[in-house]
Structure formats: structure tokens, C-alpha cells
């Protein structure tokens, strides 16, 4: 296993913990999550883009985005749009971002039929490298299972792969 692979584990049946080391300084990795121009370049699985990405990066601020599938090879997903919304709760630059993650619609209304998530992202300085630790707490084990069954883990793995590629371009 290369040291840059994502490691995942579940704690207390409903907390998904993801960890990965990036070969980039912490300030730069943090910036990738902070600015829309960066997020647009890497957020989402391969074959998806962000035609809409509005970031109000402050506690109480909202990140509202649309992921659209632009890869015809992804079959039934091609042309599909998926809207999401994050509401920032706590920001400690460049160490931590805490937000609540929702499925939403184009107007930014939360989709109450889908589980929301409390996510804490920690950026740990490893002297030129950065360890990113993401903890997502779901309301129940069932809610976590729902998103896992949707293929979320593969999606996040591809998303973080794209983040690494973007970091390599930016360094």
C-alpha cells in the first residue's frame, strides 16, 4: 500500500473516518477546500464537473454546488445533476473545517429524505506534507449504510485522487 492511499474505517457504527496523506503543504491543501476556483477543478468523482459552486467561507456561511456528469462512458449517470449544500459551523484556518452536509436542490433547499452529515476535516501538518482526516457523523448506522450503498467510498476516493492531481499542478 502506498502511503498516499485513502484509509477508511467506521467508528460507533455511524461515523465514517477517512484519512490520506498529501504531498503538499498544509496551507495549500486547506486552500483547496476554501476557494471556489479550486473546488471547481477537483470536487466530485471522475467524469463529473461543478457547473455551479458558490462558497461563503465563514461560520454560518453556505457552500452550494451542483455536480454534473459529463462522461458518456458513465452510462445512466451521463447528464445527471446532483445538488449539495454545506453549512459551515467552525473554521480554524488552516487546521480545521466543520460543516453540515446536505443533499439539496438548485434553490438550496435541503432534501429532508436524504441523510445529512456532520463533517469535521482536520489538516495535520507533517512538515511539507499534509494528513487530511475527515470524520463524517451520520444520524444512524442505516443512514451511513444508505450512502455507502450508493458507492460513496469510491466517489470520495476518486475525488481525493483528483485533489492530489490538482495539488501537483499547484505546487
From TrEMBL:
<dbReference type="InterPro" id="IPR023393">
    <property type="entry name" value="START-like_dom_sf"/>
</dbReference>
<feature type="domain" description="Activator of Hsp90 ATPase homologue 1/2-like C-terminal">
    <location>
        <begin position="23"/>
        <end position="167"/>
    </location>
</feature>
<dbReference type="InterPro" id="IPR013538">
    <property type="entry name" value="ASHA1/2-like_C"/>
</dbReference>
<dbReference type="Pfam" id="PF08327">
    <property type="entry name" value="AHSA1"/>
</dbReference>
<protein>
    <submittedName>
        <fullName>SRPBCC domain-containing protein</fullName>
    </submittedName>
</protein>
<comment type="similarity">
    <text>Belongs to the AHA1 family.</text>
</comment>
Amino acid at each position: 500500500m502506498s502511503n498516499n492511499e485513502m484509509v477508511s474505517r467506521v467508528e460507533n457504527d455511524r461515523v465514517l473516518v477517512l484519512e490520506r496523506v498529501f504531498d503538499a503543504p498544509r496551507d495549500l491543501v486547506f486552500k483547496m477546500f476554501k476557494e471556489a476556483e479550486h473546488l471547481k477543478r477537483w470536487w466530485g468523482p471522475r467524469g463529473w464537473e461543478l457547473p455551479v459552486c458558490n462558497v461563503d467561507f465563514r461560520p454560518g456561511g453556505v457552500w452550494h454546488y451542483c455536480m454534473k456528469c459529463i462522461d458518456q462512458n458513465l452510462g445512466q449517470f451521463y447528464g445527471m445533476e446532483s445538488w449539495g449544500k454545506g453549512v459551515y459551523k467552525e473554521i480554524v484556518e488552516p487546521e480545521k473545517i466543520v460543516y453540515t452536509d446536505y443533499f439539496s436542490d438548485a434553490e438550496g433547499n435541503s432534501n429532508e429524505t436524504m441523510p445529512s452529515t456532520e463533517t469535521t476535516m482536520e489538516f495535520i501538518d507533517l512538515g511539507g506534507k499534509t494528513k487530511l482526516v475527515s470524520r463524517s457523523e451520520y444520524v444512524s448506522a442505516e443512514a451511513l449504510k444508505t450512502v455507502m450503498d450508493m458507492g460513496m467510498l469510491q466517489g470520495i476516493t476518486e475525488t481525493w485522487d483528483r485533489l492530489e492531481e490538482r495539488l501537483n499542478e499547484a505546487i
